[in-house]
Amino acid sequence: MAKIALLIGVSEYEPGLNPLPAAVKDIEALRRVLQDPDMGDFNELKSLKNPEPQTMQYEIEALFSERTKEDLILFYFSGHGIKDDTGNLYFATRATKKNSKGELVRSTAVPANFIHEVMKRSRAKRQVIILDCCFSGAFDPILSAKNDDSVDLQGQLGSEGRVVLTSSSSTEYSFEQDGSELSVYTRYLVEGIETGAGDLNKDGQVSILELHEFATSKIQEVIPSMTPKIIVLRDKGFEIILAKAKSIPIPVLETIQTKIHIGEIKLEYSKKLTNTRYYNPIPSLLQPFESFISRLAERLGEYSVKYLSNNTGDTAATVQNFILEVIRQTSDADLVFVMQRVENQNSWNIKAQSNFSEIIDDDAYANILKNKILSNIPINSIFTSDHQGIYRIHYDEQESASKAFILIPLDTLDNEFILVCGLLKDSYLLSDAYCTIISSFYEASQELYLQPTRVEATILDNLKKNYGFVPFSFYEKRFNLFCDRLAKIIIYFEPILDLDTFSISGWEALARDPDSLIAPVDLFYAAELWGRKFTIELDQVLLNLAADSYRRALIEAKQSRSHEILPLSVNVYPESLMRTAYFETVREIVKEGTSNHITAKKLILEISEKTDLPIYQDGVKLKSPLDTFKVRLSKYVQELKIKFGIDDFGVGYASVSRLAGLNPPYVKIDREILYQEPVNVIIGFVQKIVATTNPLNPASIIVEGLDENSPVTLNQLKKLGISYVQGHIIGKAEPTIYRLSQEKSEFLRKQILGK
Q: What's the burial of 478, exposed, middle or buried (CB within 10 Å: 0-12/13-18/19+)?
């Protein structure tokens, strides 16, 4: 086995391309650590500085020619990466130039496609590409040429056994850092090898994945917006060992004679989520799945655009088959299918399946599945809380390779499971994370009818739920999906009825999905699952949207005079109320002259009981969260003259102490209370609390969710002392506001009076 490397650096260019002085220094620094027998220990290593196109192509072809299967080949390039007007990628040489129109003269650069071809012909199974490129356009290895700012690197440089490291993602430039002789990306690659810091698992070796994660964490300390990428195809490349870590003598343990005294240490608090100035995050086992999840969503989107937009009338079975085909292609599996248990029988049938891989024999494979994989599987070994799935390794004599068969249970009462056939036995996909991703993808794709962004969001939600902590790139991706979904939400208004006057006394702003016209529960679930950043974004957007929609609804209803404008209630999470950003949003809305202005006395913020009060502030645990929260609410009341209510009392984190402690002007009793026995005792209990807390001005109680089938009538609520009610019996939520018709008003009057 030999380790061979070619390092190319181009720092000098023709007019039209900026010089990159660090490029030639990059290859010298990398050469130093790669040729060191205690680190890279490469057998052959050649450097090429500022080459002409023909020379560069010759040396690249020579690098991959006449190699054995066991060789490790490394190709490194530091310089400009350029794409032509058709989106094809080129690597710049000393002679690279552009014509008078600013277009690349292709003959002066080396096309990525050329490199792909020579690598594909090479017998070496382990091939590493490292690109520290300053691109003139954007660059994305996953999304192939979706716009003018992307290059399909995976398509142009991808093949089995190859791993690609890139210094930037699809919308960034890779650049040199001021004050450093080396480019920032290469500097940290060298540091990871030279210091041994790239050996994250401390096994004495630096793998490609470890080096990528080390360099990424170091880069984001100094340039948070720069996000290096790792690309592998056919599940190979993550664990290629690039270098050895220098051994450090183990000190002899001695008995501690004295204790260290360092006094009080103050923790530093930063509002930046990615602040890792001195420390690196523990590597996540989920990180390798980032590109896999993206590819699943991308392929699903291609199907949605191609078929669903043409109204082909695909049956549920057809859709299921395609979903499994997406899983097969993305996983590089032989076959994927769903097994369904026959009702009242101890047997299984195939419910849906993907296509076969082109390289397998259908009949022979069926025999393997029946007699080797699916025979005598205990049901309780598949459906159990102990693991996400099970697998079996089978040696394929035709391909002379061992392959894994994974059985993934579906949440269908022990009735169905997915079987993924023919993964490589050492595939990184052989993990519980993969099982979570696949089951989430299959179920969400059907439930959400092939909406790729929402399916991807569901996968990330399930990973977050199962693992707690996820890589920051997952967090950012989920937040972007969250914001995109949030931007499509519309506002409907539900009336609140005054039982004393038989008229509408206010409106509650309710978020609605524009397609289904029901509450977007996925958004609320995500906000509560992912935390502060999501809840604040949700509450700010919905408050602004509610205010603007209400203003337009008032204009349409010709209700512009002060006495005609009724109070508007908008829900908010307790966490958001503690944040300055939300406070300033409210301040802007109640300020005179703003486009979506609402006077303070017409705005009621309803505090959701579905989440607990914040227990931390600026990283410090609060001694009394309730007292701190009350102080915060008083700021809204005193400075902005805002009124508050409690929403959904009776569910979630609702408590007597929270109700009594906050003493809000309005309390909404959740509709579930109406179905409890005896309801009159429960309502009376709430009334007693608010009366005792503030006897001079007790809170108004609003019962919500009342409809024609509710076990309590309007007349009964009136007799219990309830003054306000909302629900479908009054009127369903609509995008407009209105006055009750004479007929509706008379109907409600009779209901209230018990006539």
A: buried
Q: Quote the tokens at residue 743.
A: 């007929």
- Compute the distance between CA of residue 345 and CA of residue 416 in angstroms, rounded to an integer: 14
Residue whose entry in the numeric block shows the structure tokens 């009366």: 691
Higher pLDDT, 141 or 424: 424
Handedness of CA 411, 415, 421, 426 (dihedral sign): positive
**Residue 159 confidence (pLDDT) above 50:** no
DSSP character string of 354-421: -PPPTTS-HHHHHHHIIIIISTT--HHHHS-SS-S-EEEEEEETTTTEEEEEEEEE-SSTT-EEEEEE
Question: Quick one: pLDDT band at residue 76, thresholds 50, 70, 90?
Answer: very high
Nearest 5°: the CA angle 42, 48, 54 is: 125
- If DSSP states are collapsed to H, E and C, what string results for 631-653? HHHHHHHHHHCCEEEEEEECCCC
pLDDT at position 665 is: 82
Q: Can you list the alpha helix ranges (DSSP code H) found in 520-662? A: 521-530, 532-556, 574-577, 580-590, 625-635, 656-662
The count of other CB atoms within 10 Å of the CB of residue 111 is 18
3-class DSSP assignment, residue 343? coil
Q: What phi, psi does 731 have (nearest 5°)?
A: 170, 140
Residue for token digits 């009136």?
718
Q: What is the mean pLDDT of residues 403-427?
A: 88
What pLDDT is attached to residue 421? 93
Kindly report, residue by residue over 538-566, the tens digit of the pLDDT.
999 999 999 999 999 999 988 877 778 99
- Which amino acid type is present at position 275? N
Report the alpha-carbon distance of residue 397 to residue 403 in Å, rounded.
11
| CA dihedral over 673, 678, 683, 688, signed as positive or negative | negative
